[in-house]
Amino acid sequence: xxxxxxxxxxxxxxxxxxxxxxxxxxxxxxxxxxxxxxxxxxxxxxxxxxxxxxxxxxxxxxxxxxxxxxxxxxxxxxxxxxxxxxxxxxxxxxxxxxxxxxxxxxxxxxxxxxxxxxxxxxxxxxxxxxxxxxxxxxxxxxxxxxxxxxxxxxxxxxxxxxxxxxxxxxxxxxxxxxxxxxxxxxxxxxxxxxxxxxxxxxxxxxxxxxxxxxxxxxxxxxxxxxxxxxxxxxxxxxxxxxxxxxxxxxxxxxxxxxxxxxxxxxxxxxxxxxxxxxxxxxxxxxxxxxxxxxxxxxxxxxxxxxxxxxxxxxxxxxxxxxxxxxxxxxxxxxxxxxxxxxxxxxxxxxxxxxxxxxxxxxxxxxxxxxxxxxxxxxxxxxxxxxxxxxxxxxxxxxxxxxxxxxxxxxxxxxxxxxxxxxxxxxxxxxxxxxxxxxxxxxxx
Length: 444
Ligand code: NDP
Ligand code: 2IT
Hints:
- The chain is built from 17 helices and twelve strands.
- The chain is of the alpha/beta class and 444 residues long.
- Among the domains are: 53-186, Rossmann fold (3-Layer(aba) Sandwich), CATH 3.40.50; 206-368, NAD(P)-binding Rossmann-like Domain (Rossmann fold), CATH 3.40.50.
- The strands form two sheets. A seven-stranded mixed sheet has the order 9-8-7-6-10-11-12, sandwiched between helices. A five-stranded mixed sheet has the order 1-2-4-3-5.
- It is globular and about 60 Å long.
- It binds NADPH dihydro-nicotinamide-adenine-dinucleotide phosphate and (2Z)-2-iminopentanedioic acid (2IT).
- The site of NADPH dihydro-nicotinamide-adenine-dinucleotide phosphate has 25 residues, from helix 9.
């Protein structure tokens, strides 16, 4: 494989998809050496078959708002690769959603799911519908209209969606209800369901908790204790909330959280009670993080991200490309020695270079945030055996999966000077399993 040539071809065939190009470029750059050790891969053009999604569904979603106006949005499902299991990955509802973003997410998901050791292929879907400011009834009507198209393409053994930005328990519930009505089947077609109808314990917590379990493994390699460390968290949604929860439980100090309007800086640290307030504010009232600053009298910085604040550890948990090269330089200059990504691709390539050049602990999302989809995989297992496991059981399995992912990164990513390149480790480990499965299954 000539990585530069593969990328150039993809850019020519699929222009205007910069996030997709970015994700592919990162992976190709780190697997090229390993790939070229296997001439049999290139004989069957494995790399293009792995980079280009198996198929993409694209549809119009029409729904009625509370005023009786008819609205249209675009809906998508990218089925990227199912060499090791049914397509699996979240659904994102956000005004910024387009095909290129979903293709990057589905591509990343394929490697992430491979790392979990569970039998899941990669996929992602979503819509440019924005739940922000919408009533409950509007969200329900939108979810139903979305599922009216999507249902023919998914199924418990075909493609199993879940949540992502803008899609949480409420949206999954509405989509599940419509799927069930259309198919007349009660199945494990979505994960992140309510506990009463097949949802797994610990799934809401899994991405944030998993990220901290991964961080603990990284810290262990340098004998660093998390207790008392100051942490920057971005976002205030599902991933950010449970990242903060676990950090607080372990005695670390969380000083920032954010949303798309700005960030709060609380030098005293967000404690359990303050986090409960954030959870209520965000999950129940769907308010803005600014209100935290008003309630607790701390600093609020509108239109900015928290990366200029002084801390030890950063946990980006909002969205892609939220840390650029300058942000990364500021983090390192301010003493940050570990960055563990709860979000997908939150660091730009320039930011990654800054972290790696400074030899700080840096874990890419496809390793560090794999806890969410891992517990989704455990939810699928529980649904198929028609049993549910206890909180402790699921949490133990999550811990062990995150530990295994860390070990895989160390195995494939340790450089001659001992520095662990988690990006390379995660990409090579994730890639090899999918590649071997594709080779065994012939040209399909
Ligand atoms: P939520 O919708 O629950 O929360 C998203 C948070 O990020 C909100 O605070 C939101 O602010 C903020 N945000 C979203 N888009 C932007 C943007 N363009 N600029 C600035 N802030 C933004 O989503 P999740 O917590 O589920 O997802 C967060 C990240 O984690 C995403 O990258 C997702 O792909 C990734 N992820 C999620 C998993 C899961 O299980 N949910 C699993 C693995 C990764 P506002 O309230 O203003 O919209
Ligand atoms: O990015 C992700 O891994 C997710 N949004 C979770 C996917 C899932 O199927 O649980």
